Amino acid sequence: MAEIAGAFATPHMPGSPGQARENPQSETAQLFGAVRSHIAEVDPDVLVVFDTDHFATFFYSNMPTFAVGVAGETAGPGTDDWPGLFCYYPEIPLHEELGRHVHASGINSGFDLSQTQEFEIDHSIVVPLHFLNDEGGKMKRPIVPLWVNGIAPPLPLAKRCYALGGMVREAIASWPSNLRVGIVASGAISGDIGGPKAIDGQPFAWPDESWVVNVVNRMRNGEIDELLNEATADRLRAAGNVSGEMLNWIALLGAVGGRKPRFLEPQLKGGNAYGAWRWD
Amino acid sequence: MSVYGINKVCYLAQMDLNFRERLKRDPEAALVGFPLTHDERRAFLEWDMASLYKAGAHTFLLSRLPRFESMGMTRADYIRSMRSTLTEEERRELEAKGQR
Known about the structure:
The structure holds 2 protein chains of 2 kinds. By secondary structure, chain A is of the alpha/beta class. Chain A has 9 helices and 12 strands. An 8-stranded mixed beta sheet of chain A has the order 6-3-9-2-10-1-12-11, sandwiched between helices. In chain A, helix 3 crosses helix 5 and helix 5 packs across helix 9. Chain B has one domain: Protocatechuate 4,5-dioxygenase, Chain A. Chains A and B meet through loops of A and helix 1, helix 6, helix 7 and helix 8 of B.
């Protein structure tokens, strides 16, 4: 009886909270604000967040391809400190039962998810939540984190991430009581951090703008098969070492059944995009 | 070669605040006990990020080192070393975009 009420996607640059506080008119603040307006109008009860952790919740000692958080609460971003990332949330409520249900539904439908029952989260979840889910310094809605390994190759196939989203949609449909679920996807479309092409004084390189334009056009046109075929491991690697974060967007597309977005704006200089999928 | 050891140093530089501080102030002592070769240890201490990159370390993890001033290294030191791995063509492309 539960349903997906809408889906929302943003990047998660760690400096954005500080940038938006200092300059609310900045393009980044305005784009996050636009997605926040959409989520406020849809007003879901709970958020399922497709995210790529950046070696904080997980490391090579234990690196799941897909994992779901099954716990009552979490906190973050802990020791993941960056300039401009001023917001630490000591209590981030989680929807433990929905997390358990998604985990079991995945296993029972052939999706062998990992689970974690004790964890903290890094900027990759905190930044989107700060913009989309903060009310008076606290989290408005509980969340269920669902991690997709988009950073430590080998990455999952795009079509597998799309199927992951479909599994989540079916899991939500089989939830036994009324619940309006919002999907959130976190991540860049193209980004390279720490590589030899990093810009002077910055950790990041220029993004692959042509790839961002292509991905945004595919999403706007609902050209899902084309996008899944193009988002190969080689293409993602060429677009930068965190470009696998766009697999979270692919999972979102699977969750909304390939619908077209109502709002979708690229931010080419950052390799980013901001989107909202609604049908209300 | 022990890429896992290189990555783990970078991982702990973020996660473990005591280690972060020791890696900044007394890097030689901080690196004792990690599964690193002699050359990998030297590369950390001499800010030779290019060698660690070429060994296969994850660049996202390596980029934590200048963020936390590990081994006393600045971001400019980091970028200088990493850029030494670029091909001549890649270097020209960067220069065309105004990079040194």
